[in-house]
Amino acid sequence: MNFEQKVVIVTGGSRGIGLATVEAFLKKGATVVLTASRQENADKAVAGLKERYPEATIGGISPDLCSLASVEEAFRGVAEQYGRIDVLVNNAGVSERTPFEEYTEETFEKVMDLNVKGVFNCTRAVVPYMVQQGGGAVVSTSSMVSIYGQPSGMAYPTSKFAVNGLTLSLARELGPKGIRVNAVAPGITETDMMKAVPKSIIDPMIAQIPLRRLGQPEDIANAICFLASEEAGYISGVVLQVDGLARS
């Protein structure tokens, strides 16, 4: 996979799966712009990446992903600076586990605003550039819970189910314009949040996975890069489960 002369935007790219995705694209020659919730977080991530990849072109921005106007302004700046936008990775999101009877309207809206509206806003803002240049790729981060659900915090799987629907629908609508739209649905992945979970809870989870290990951020990042690459040029409308599970 080669992304030289390609410009990639990765939302939520300052840590976890997002940061691993940024690194994966940088290793393959891409120019990458990451987003973070605060500019200081974006700047810190960029500084660290520049130390590890001194020859790479990397930038950081912090638009309000829940505001279409803010995203459009930020992405316009990316297009003006680098001349094009080839790949959008919708990775930014928020998870939570509130029991249903304790849900408030505000809690539900917080999850849906970033996880669904944020994906809509970023995709809506980037598509005109892709149409103008004759094509592009959008890859969004879904989740295994969009397929299986989870015992509490129902807004999160609901939001990811919506991401799946957006992915399939836009793949059909934007395909004639040369834009492929896919998603990855990670399984249990060893991010900073998961590292805080006790071993007594983690071990039974691992026992259910045939590969007998948790996913690593790099596992998800590699799948994202593949779906965004020319090697996946005839793949669109797919929600790729990256969870180590065996299926018939």
Which short descriptors sum up this protein?
9 helices; about 250 residues; alpha/beta; 7-stranded parallel β-sheet; globular; about 50% helix
Q: Can you describe this structure?
A:
- The protein has helices spanning 16-27, 39-52, 68-82, 105-133, 145-148, 155-174, 192-195, 199-207, 217-228, and strands at residues 7-10, 31-35, 58-61, 87-90, 136-141, 179-186, 239-242.
- The radius of gyration is 17 Å and the shape is globular.
- The mean pLDDT is 94.
- It has 248 residues and is of the alpha/beta class.
- Helix 1 links the parallel strand 1 and strand 2.
- It is built from 9 helices and 7 strands; from the N terminus they run E-H-E-H-E-H-E-H-E-H-H-E-H-H-H-E.
- The chain has a 7-stranded parallel sheet, with helices on both faces.
**Poorly predicted regions:** none
Mean of the pLDDT scores? 94
Largest sheet: 7 strands, parallel
Distance between the termini: 29 Å
Total DSSP E strands? 7
In percent, how much strand structure appears in the residues?
Answer: 5-15%
Rg (CA only): 17 Å
| Total helical elements | 9
How would you briefly describe this protein structure?
48% of the residues lie in helices and 14% in strands. It is an alpha/beta fold and 248 residues long.
Topology:
Elements: E1 7-10, H1 16-27, E2 31-35, H2 39-52, E3 58-61, H3 68-82, E4 87-90, H4 105-133, E5 136-141, H5 145-148, H6 155-174, E6 179-186, H7 192-195, H8 199-207, H9 217-228, E7 239-242
Parallel strand pairs: 1-2, 1-4, 2-3, 4-5, 5-6, 6-7
Helix pairs in contact: 1-9, 3-4, 4-6
